[in-house]
Amino acid sequence: MEFSHIPVLYKEVMEGMAVRADGAYIDGTVGGGGHSSGIAESLGDGGRLYCFDQDTEALAAAGKRLEKFGSRVHFYHDNYVNAVKDLKADGVTGVDGILLDIGVSSYQLDNPERGFSYNEDAPLDMRMNRENPLSAYEIVNDYEEKELARILKEYGEEKFAGRIAKNIVSERAKAPIRTTFELNEIIKMSIPAKMRADGHPSKRTYQALRVECNRELDVLKESIDGMIDFLNPGGRLLIISFQSLEDRIVKNAFRTAENPCICPPSLPQCVCGRKSKGKVITRHPITASAEEAEENRRSKPAKLRIFEKGEA
Ligand SMILES: C[S@@+](CC[C@H](N)C(=O)[O-])C[C@H]1O[C@@H](n2cnc3c(N)ncnc32)[C@H](O)[C@@H]1O
Asked: How far is the CA of 102 from the centre of ligand 1 (A)?
């Protein structure tokens, strides 16, 4: 299958990253290498781009696309949560820009055998990293009812989380739930017909399972501070998120990095001693233009936020 990811907010990312020819950059989610191509294009021989992805198929596609840039580009098969640790181990002391374009790629969604799409009949999987032991199959077939309901409610904001979890548990007692279409049937019977108007009934459950399977919110939360610390003065962290839970994490982490003071507002001056790490460049998130949203419907929910590291 062709890797045909159209980079979201491409122009805005390039402007925000403001790549210097001799700078060092991280693409934490290289995917098909669309954004990385733009970054690598702007680098000179002294510049470096470190590309991460937890999906070996994405890395293979990006490797091919970025081959022409030779030793300017380096690849790592790892979760971006480990990017700073991996680079430090390789002697890199800081970078001038980091991009995270989180979530699934079109390739993963469109490739039925990966089990990300409720529109294709496939084994339940949803692992971005196929070396991980936990897939959607284990979550659906092994998790306790209460835990399933919590995940669907918290990560999918699914109103019928309790009913879906209950029906999953009673159906799997008869036989394991193996495929996306089997799961779709259970979700459908759990949501009253008149409440099914808001998109595909499986949309929220699939989002929740994907987030749980890939620990998407946890790795995002665990990464932001360390990435800001790894930026050189004036360097920027750019994060594109696709759903409100992720965007809230980014917004709050950036706000705290800008203003970490925990003193009560009644105090005339700060006594907690916490220092700002820099400033939020985007007071409001950058979203796709009407033109981009029209051309690429996956860009519609995208929100880009940018943080700039202060001078030392
Ligand atoms: C939306 S695509 C990125 C597309 C890319 N910006 C481009 O222009 O082609 C997201 C990619 O990030 C990867 N990914 C998501 N979460 C990740 C994580 N925590 N660590 C490493 N890779 C991740 C996915 O496997 C996928 O290939």
From this structure: 6
Answer CATH for 113-214 from 1.10.150.170, 3.40.50.150, 1.10.8.420, 1.10.1740.10: 1.10.150.170
Nearest CA to ligand 1 atom 22: 53
Model confidence pLDDT, tens digit, residues 38-82: 999 999 999 999 999 999 999 999 999 999 999 999 999 999 999
Domain assignments of the chain as residue spans, ordered by start: 10-107+216-309, 113-214
Helix (H) or strand (E) holding 236: strand 231-241
> Is 54 near ligand 1, meaning CB less than 6 Å away?
yes
Of the CATH numbers 2.120.10.30, 3.55.10.10, 3.40.50.150, 2.60.120.10, which one belongs to the domain with range 10-107+216-309? 3.40.50.150
For ligand 1, say whether the CB of 278 is within 6 Å of any of its atoms. Answer: no
Q: Is 34 in the pocket of ligand 1 (CB under 6 A)?
A: yes
Among the listed residues 304, 27, 79, the one whose alpha carbon sits nearest the alpha carbon of residue 214: 79
217-273 per-position pLDDT tens digit: 999 999 999 999 999 999 999 999 999 999 999 999 999 999 999 999 899 989 999
- Let me know: does 40 contact 19? Beta carbons within 8 Å: no
Mark 265-300 as b/e (b = at least 16 C-beta within 10 Å).
Answer: eeeeeeeeeeeebbebebeebbbbeeebeeebebbe
Whole-number average pLDDT of the chain: 94
pLDDT, tens digit, 9 for 90 and up, residues 113-164: 899 999 999 999 999 999 999 999 999 999 999 999 999 999 999 999 999 9
pLDDT at residue 111 greater than cutoff 90: no
* Ligand 1 pocket mutation pick from 54, 57, 109, 250 by most atoms within 8 angstroms of CB: 54
- Is-above-0.85 flag for pTM? yes
What is the C-alpha separation between 236 and 228, in angstroms, rounded? 8
